[in-house]
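haha ok so turns out i had the wrong file open the whole time. this is the CORRECT one, sorry everyone. sequence first:
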Amino acid sequence: MFDRIGVFGPAASGALVIVRPVLAELRIQALGVIEDATLDSASVYQARGRLHGYPDPEATKVRRNLAERHNIRGAQIAIGNGAAEFMRSAIHLLAAGGGEVVVPRPSQPLYATLATRAGIQVVEPGMPDDGPDIDALARSVTDRTRVLVLCNPNDPTGAYVPSERLGELLSRLPEHVHVLLDESYVQFQDVEAEDACMSLVEAFPRLLVLRSFSRWDR
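then structure:
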């Protein structure tokens, strides 16, 4: 069952002996003789499924299911490694080169951190306890503003901006401003339907909504 492949030092002195198993013999004892190799190969192929292949980079099935669930087009959906990845990419692409990012305070500190690390100026208007002041946010926007970030419901206060108020804000913003709406906690509000704000993307193409799989079932 084992082959000796080397002896180091005199055998009488308790030398180290390296052995290796005879794999063919072990395989026969453990599995027996495979009578139908074709059937065995087919069973292994069916059991492993797509484990040997690369995942779909476009997440086609996931996007199709999400589009049906949320009543939007699959082409409007992108799948990534968390909302922070999209937030970082959007801020860099839209505001780099002299732009500003407006982030109401207090809110999730990640937003300002992402902009600061990219060398982008951050404007932080104060936020009342009951949620962002739409008029104050509109006044915070200047010719240099490229991105307005809203966490809805807000983290950490829990304040929620209804879709009607959000639509009012979007209608007042100039063409050069995009709104990043972080809805990672949207399932925790009971003010209106879950997709009320997301549905505004059809009327306002500069609205980018971010959702997360990591919090919806908590």
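The radius of gyration is 29 Å.
again sry for the mixup
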